[in-house]
Write a structure and sequence with these properties.
Layout (H helix, E strand, L loop, with lengths): L6 E4 L6 E3 L2 H11 L6 H13 L17 H5 L5 H12 L8 H10 L5 E3 L3 H10 L4 E5 L6 H6 L8 E4 H4 L6 H11 L6 E5 L14 E4 L14 H5 L7 E3 L9
Parallel strand pairs: 1-4, 1-6, 4-5, 6-7, 7-8
Antiparallel strand pairs: 2-3
Helix pairs in contact: 1-2, 1-5, 4-5
Protein backbone atom coordinates (compact mmCIF):
# COMPACT_ATOMS: atom_id res chain seq x y z
CA UNK A 1 0.00 0.00 0.00
CA UNK A 2 1.39 3.41 -0.98
CA UNK A 3 2.38 5.87 1.73
CA UNK A 4 0.17 8.91 2.25
CA UNK A 5 1.84 12.26 1.57
CA UNK A 6 2.09 14.23 4.82
CA UNK A 7 5.07 16.53 4.21
CA UNK A 8 6.00 19.07 1.54
CA UNK A 9 9.32 20.21 0.11
CA UNK A 10 9.55 23.17 -2.26
CA UNK A 11 12.27 24.61 -4.44
CA UNK A 12 12.68 28.40 -4.28
CA UNK A 13 13.54 30.08 -7.58
CA UNK A 14 11.10 29.30 -10.37
CA UNK A 15 8.84 27.41 -7.98
CA UNK A 16 7.68 29.61 -5.09
CA UNK A 17 9.15 32.88 -6.38
CA UNK A 18 10.68 34.33 -9.52
CA UNK A 19 13.45 36.92 -9.77
CA UNK A 20 12.66 40.26 -11.40
CA UNK A 21 13.31 40.80 -15.12
CA UNK A 22 16.87 41.70 -16.14
CA UNK A 23 15.80 45.20 -17.16
CA UNK A 24 14.55 46.18 -13.68
CA UNK A 25 17.51 44.36 -12.09
CA UNK A 26 19.94 46.51 -14.04
CA UNK A 27 17.96 49.69 -13.37
CA UNK A 28 18.10 49.06 -9.62
CA UNK A 29 21.87 48.53 -9.73
CA UNK A 30 22.36 51.70 -11.77
CA UNK A 31 20.34 53.68 -9.26
CA UNK A 32 22.40 52.28 -6.37
CA UNK A 33 25.63 53.37 -8.05
CA UNK A 34 24.32 56.81 -9.00
CA UNK A 35 24.40 56.15 -12.73
CA UNK A 36 21.85 56.82 -15.43
CA UNK A 37 21.70 55.56 -19.00
CA UNK A 38 19.28 56.01 -21.89
CA UNK A 39 16.44 53.50 -21.90
CA UNK A 40 17.62 51.93 -25.14
CA UNK A 41 21.10 51.32 -23.73
CA UNK A 42 19.63 49.82 -20.56
CA UNK A 43 17.52 47.44 -22.64
CA UNK A 44 20.51 46.40 -24.74
CA UNK A 45 22.74 45.82 -21.70
CA UNK A 46 20.00 43.94 -19.84
CA UNK A 47 19.53 41.63 -22.84
CA UNK A 48 23.28 41.00 -23.03
CA UNK A 49 23.46 40.23 -19.30
CA UNK A 50 20.54 37.83 -19.65
CA UNK A 51 22.25 36.06 -22.56
CA UNK A 52 25.36 35.76 -20.40
CA UNK A 53 23.29 34.11 -17.64
CA UNK A 54 24.45 36.75 -15.17
CA UNK A 55 21.15 37.05 -13.29
CA UNK A 56 20.80 34.22 -10.75
CA UNK A 57 17.33 32.74 -11.10
CA UNK A 58 17.08 34.06 -14.66
CA UNK A 59 18.09 32.48 -17.94
CA UNK A 60 20.96 30.02 -18.13
CA UNK A 61 24.07 31.21 -19.98
CA UNK A 62 24.10 30.79 -23.73
CA UNK A 63 27.83 30.06 -23.36
CA UNK A 64 29.95 29.41 -20.27
CA UNK A 65 33.51 30.72 -20.61
CA UNK A 66 36.11 28.00 -20.07
CA UNK A 67 37.52 29.84 -17.07
CA UNK A 68 34.11 29.67 -15.34
CA UNK A 69 33.10 26.09 -16.16
CA UNK A 70 34.24 24.64 -12.83
CA UNK A 71 32.55 27.43 -10.89
CA UNK A 72 29.34 26.82 -12.85
CA UNK A 73 29.24 23.19 -11.78
CA UNK A 74 29.84 24.00 -8.10
CA UNK A 75 28.31 27.48 -7.86
CA UNK A 76 25.82 26.61 -5.14
CA UNK A 77 28.21 24.87 -2.77
CA UNK A 78 29.33 28.04 -1.01
CA UNK A 79 28.76 31.79 -1.04
CA UNK A 80 32.22 32.64 -2.40
CA UNK A 81 31.86 30.44 -5.47
CA UNK A 82 28.35 31.66 -6.12
CA UNK A 83 29.37 35.31 -6.14
CA UNK A 84 32.50 34.63 -8.19
CA UNK A 85 30.52 32.75 -10.82
CA UNK A 86 27.77 35.31 -11.33
CA UNK A 87 29.97 38.38 -11.20
CA UNK A 88 32.27 36.57 -13.64
CA UNK A 89 29.39 35.96 -16.02
CA UNK A 90 28.31 39.60 -15.72
CA UNK A 91 31.84 40.73 -16.60
CA UNK A 92 31.39 39.18 -20.02
CA UNK A 93 29.29 42.30 -20.70
CA UNK A 94 31.13 45.67 -20.68
CA UNK A 95 29.35 47.98 -18.25
CA UNK A 96 29.96 51.73 -17.73
CA UNK A 97 31.37 51.40 -14.19
CA UNK A 98 33.28 48.56 -12.49
CA UNK A 99 31.17 48.85 -9.32
CA UNK A 100 28.10 47.75 -11.24
CA UNK A 101 29.11 44.09 -11.21
CA UNK A 102 28.97 43.84 -7.44
CA UNK A 103 25.88 46.06 -7.32
CA UNK A 104 24.08 43.66 -9.65
CA UNK A 105 24.97 40.68 -7.52
CA UNK A 106 23.88 42.45 -4.33
CA UNK A 107 20.60 43.53 -5.90
CA UNK A 108 19.48 39.99 -6.76
CA UNK A 109 19.66 39.01 -3.08
CA UNK A 110 17.25 41.76 -1.99
CA UNK A 111 13.63 40.87 -1.19
CA UNK A 112 12.41 43.50 -3.66
CA UNK A 113 14.08 41.57 -6.50
CA UNK A 114 11.83 38.54 -5.90
CA UNK A 115 8.13 38.10 -6.55
CA UNK A 116 6.01 35.19 -5.24
CA UNK A 117 3.88 33.37 -7.79
CA UNK A 118 0.19 34.29 -7.48
CA UNK A 119 -0.76 31.03 -5.75
CA UNK A 120 2.27 30.73 -3.45
CA UNK A 121 0.62 32.26 -0.38
CA UNK A 122 -2.61 30.33 -0.95
CA UNK A 123 -0.85 26.98 -1.17
CA UNK A 124 1.51 27.54 1.76
CA UNK A 125 -1.30 28.83 3.96
CA UNK A 126 -3.50 25.86 3.10
CA UNK A 127 -0.72 23.44 3.98
CA UNK A 128 -0.18 25.20 7.30
CA UNK A 129 -3.89 24.99 8.07
CA UNK A 130 -3.83 21.25 7.33
CA UNK A 131 -0.87 20.74 9.65
CA UNK A 132 1.46 19.74 6.81
CA UNK A 133 5.10 20.68 7.57
CA UNK A 134 6.97 22.49 4.82
CA UNK A 135 10.67 22.82 3.97
CA UNK A 136 12.35 24.92 1.29
CA UNK A 137 15.15 22.98 -0.43
CA UNK A 138 17.25 25.21 -2.67
CA UNK A 139 20.47 25.20 -4.64
CA UNK A 140 21.59 28.70 -3.74
CA UNK A 141 24.65 30.65 -2.63
CA UNK A 142 23.06 33.07 -0.13
CA UNK A 143 20.54 33.16 2.71
CA UNK A 144 17.02 33.49 1.30
CA UNK A 145 15.29 33.64 4.71
CA UNK A 146 15.09 37.48 4.65
CA UNK A 147 13.24 37.24 1.33
CA UNK A 148 10.61 34.99 2.88
CA UNK A 149 10.30 37.25 5.92
CA UNK A 150 9.89 40.36 3.78
CA UNK A 151 7.10 38.73 1.77
CA UNK A 152 5.32 37.40 4.87
CA UNK A 153 5.99 33.76 3.98
CA UNK A 154 8.39 32.69 6.73
CA UNK A 155 5.56 31.69 9.06
CA UNK A 156 4.58 28.95 6.61
CA UNK A 157 8.05 27.35 6.42
CA UNK A 158 9.33 24.93 9.05
CA UNK A 159 12.86 24.41 7.70
CA UNK A 160 15.28 25.75 5.10
CA UNK A 161 17.82 23.43 3.50
CA UNK A 162 20.16 25.65 1.49
CA UNK A 163 22.97 24.10 -0.53
CA UNK A 164 25.64 26.65 0.41
CA UNK A 165 25.06 26.02 4.12
CA UNK A 166 25.70 22.29 3.73
CA UNK A 167 28.23 22.20 0.89
CA UNK A 168 26.08 19.89 -1.24
CA UNK A 169 23.76 20.45 -4.20
CA UNK A 170 20.65 18.89 -5.66
CA UNK A 171 20.13 16.42 -7.33
CA UNK A 172 22.28 14.64 -4.77
CA UNK A 173 20.22 13.01 -1.99
CA UNK A 174 21.76 14.81 0.99
CA UNK A 175 19.58 17.95 1.07
CA UNK A 176 16.40 15.99 0.43
CA UNK A 177 17.24 13.45 3.15
CA UNK A 178 18.04 16.17 5.67
CA UNK A 179 14.81 18.00 4.80
CA UNK A 180 12.75 14.86 5.41
CA UNK A 181 14.41 14.35 8.78
CA UNK A 182 13.76 18.00 9.71
CA UNK A 183 10.07 17.50 8.96
CA UNK A 184 9.92 14.18 10.82
CA UNK A 185 8.82 12.31 7.72
CA UNK A 186 10.17 9.42 5.67
CA UNK A 187 10.94 10.23 2.02
CA UNK A 188 7.95 8.11 1.01
CA UNK A 189 5.69 10.51 2.96
CA UNK A 190 7.00 13.65 1.26
CA UNK A 191 6.19 15.50 -1.96
CA UNK A 192 8.99 17.55 -3.57
CA UNK A 193 7.76 20.38 -5.82
CA UNK A 194 10.22 22.13 -8.11
CA UNK A 195 10.84 23.36 -11.64
CA UNK A 196 13.99 21.44 -12.57
CA UNK A 197 13.58 17.94 -13.99
CA UNK A 198 17.18 17.11 -13.05
CA UNK A 199 17.88 18.89 -9.77
CA UNK A 200 14.45 18.66 -8.14
CA UNK A 201 13.48 15.29 -9.57
CA UNK A 202 16.58 13.92 -7.83
CA UNK A 203 14.33 13.56 -4.78
CA UNK A 204 12.67 10.62 -6.49
CA UNK A 205 15.87 8.59 -6.13
CA UNK A 206 15.45 8.93 -2.38
CA UNK A 207 11.84 7.78 -2.54
CA UNK A 208 10.03 11.13 -2.51
CA UNK A 209 7.13 11.83 -4.83
CA UNK A 210 7.92 14.70 -7.22
CA UNK A 211 5.69 17.34 -8.77
CA UNK A 212 7.21 19.63 -11.41
CA UNK A 213 6.02 23.13 -12.33
CA UNK A 214 6.98 25.34 -15.26
CA UNK A 215 9.66 28.00 -14.63
CA UNK A 216 7.72 30.91 -16.11
CA UNK A 217 7.35 34.63 -15.41
CA UNK A 218 5.05 35.29 -12.46
CA UNK A 219 2.23 36.69 -14.60
CA UNK A 220 2.30 33.64 -16.89
CA UNK A 221 1.86 31.00 -14.17
CA UNK A 222 -1.07 31.95 -11.94
CA UNK A 223 -1.97 28.48 -10.67
CA UNK A 224 0.97 26.12 -11.17
CA UNK A 225 1.22 25.23 -7.49
CA UNK A 226 -2.46 24.52 -6.86
CA UNK A 227 -2.23 20.81 -7.86
CA UNK A 228 -0.01 20.31 -4.80
CA UNK A 229 -3.09 20.68 -2.60
CA UNK A 230 -4.72 17.72 -4.37
CA UNK A 231 -1.60 15.57 -4.00
CA UNK A 232 -0.97 16.23 -0.30
CA UNK A 233 -2.90 13.83 1.90
CA UNK A 234 -3.24 11.24 -0.85
CA UNK A 235 -1.13 8.29 -2.04
CA UNK A 236 2.30 9.16 -3.39
CA UNK A 237 2.25 9.80 -7.16
CA UNK A 238 5.17 9.37 -9.53
CA UNK A 239 6.89 12.31 -11.18
CA UNK A 240 4.22 14.63 -12.56
CA UNK A 241 4.09 18.09 -14.03
CA UNK A 242 1.46 20.81 -13.94
CA UNK A 243 -0.12 21.37 -17.33
CA UNK A 244 1.58 24.07 -19.39
CA UNK A 245 -0.48 27.24 -19.94
CA UNK A 246 -2.31 27.50 -23.25
CA UNK A 247 -0.38 29.00 -26.15
CA UNK A 248 -1.63 32.55 -26.60
CA UNK A 249 0.70 33.28 -29.48
CA UNK A 250 2.61 35.82 -27.37
Amino acid sequence: MAEVITGALFDFSGTLMRVEPADSWLRAALERTGLSLPDEEISDLAAALEDAGALPGGSSPRHIPAALEELWEERDRDARRHRALYTGLARQVPLPAPGLYDALYDRHREPAAWHPYPDTVQVLRALRERGIPVAVVSNIGWDLRPVFRAHGLDGFVDAYLLSFEHGVQKPGPELFALACRKLGRTPQQVLMTGDDRVADAGAARLGCAVHLVEHLPVADRPAGLLPVLDLIGGPAPGIGRSPAPPDTGA
